[in-house]
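Hi all, long-time lurker, first post. I run a small reading group and we've been trying to get comfortable going from sequence to structure in the token notation. Rather than ask abstract questions, I figured I'd post a concrete chain and ask someone more experienced to write out its structure so we can walk through it together at our next meeting. Sequence below, copied exactly:
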Amino acid sequence: MAMIILVLEDVNETRDGIEKLLKADGYRVALARDETDAIESARQQRPDLILVSVAGLPHEVIATARRVRERVLRRRTANENTVGARRRRAPDGCRSDPGLRGGALRA
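-- Answer (accepted) --
Happy to help. Here is the structure in token form:
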């Protein structure tokens, strides 16, 4: 499966160009025009990489990238903790995993 790259770029023409180049190299691409779009898209797409290219001073761009990453990771961690709380140990030491079909057990 191809890697998903989320492109956060505030200039339409640049965003479109980056998308074409990445798709030509076989990547799946999700696009965002601002921080809010990037957070929502990252939550839905679960990208392997987030490319941030927005106007601003370097420290502002870095802060934007960190906020996107932290909000997405915070949500993922919360979701993983919820799934982990649903797992129960069977008497034989296996854990049931609600994500597996038919209530399959994972050792």
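A couple of things your group might point at:
The beta strands are 4-9, 28-32, 49-53, 95-96, 105-106.
DSSP finds three helices and five strands in the chain.
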